[in-house]
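The record is kept unedited without comment:

——
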Amino acid sequence: MTSPPQRTNRSTGTLPVPNTVFRENWTAPWWYWLAGLTLACAAAATVHLGYPGLRALVPYAVTVPLVAGSLWWLGAIEVRVTTDTFYVDDAVLPRRAIASAATLSASDYRAALGVRYDPLAFVVRRPWLNGAVLVKLCDSDDPTPYWIIGSTRPAELAAALGNS
């Protein structure tokens, strides 16, 4: 029986991890940063309203780091496949528990998250990712029927998972 996704310490370094078959790091697109920081500055300018001195800087010192931290957090996801384990952020799945992995077309991706969605499924996605991989599990005792993982390179991820 495979356990539900577990929390574990993930590697934050840039050094390659031994036995890595596939690795991708998600980052928020540049237009998210541009829009977010523009809105943060506009909100801060509205609050500051021309007050002199330190009071003028406080709204900027609060809103800009808050928005930047939120955008960094949204994009700080690592998807990694090693020879024996599949990692999605802090979730860990042994590759022996994977029955199959297939890419989802854009319409299948929307349907899988809509009317065909199983509430017990494990889903990790971001709105800027158009591709995804459906990972079916082979353990009948596990309540999680499948994982849906967004990806910038879904064909490569499915191929890496399919070579179990």
User: Anything to note?
Assistant: Strands lie at 20-26, 77-82, 85-88, 91-94, 98-104, 122-124, 131-137, 146-151. The first strand starts at residue 20 and ends at 26.
